[in-house]
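Q: Okay, next protein. This is UPF0756 membrane protein SAMN05660649_04167 from Desulfotruncus arcticus DSM 17038. I've checked the sequence twice, so it should be correct. Can you predict the 3D structure?
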Amino acid sequence: MNGVLILVALLLIGIIARSNLIATAACVLLIIKFANLNFILPLLEKRGLEVGLLFLLLAILVPVAKGEISEKDLLMTFTSLPGVLALIGGALATHLNGEGLKLLQIDPELIFGLLIGSVFGIVFLGGIPVGPLMAAGLTALFLETIHLFK
């Protein structure tokens, strides 16, 4: 029953918090475990993040494909204050996501805390769970800041 109780707990948390993503992820992993399809787990671990990010990017780029964003809008990205700040924000977020991935590779048990924190953010702060990487990146930033002041 390695990991099953934690996955069931995450499934229940996802249902209670009305987080379809957390509930579905836990449910899919439970099905994989109970169907004895464990050979899929390393593939998900290795490529799941890339596939998830691919679908996230596809969803974000739909307005471009639909022609709703013009070349003029694109030029505004490089010439307006909001556009420049978006570029800086994107670069910093990407850096934090990389740091979060490193942290999760070193301390994978943190994922449970990140998920509980995400559920808290969904339920009490009206947040949207886009994945644990940014949460891990912020955690890495917090840990680095604490280590600076020790």
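A: Here is a summary of the prediction. The radius of gyration is 18 Å. Residues 1-38 form one domain.
Q: Noted. On to the next one.
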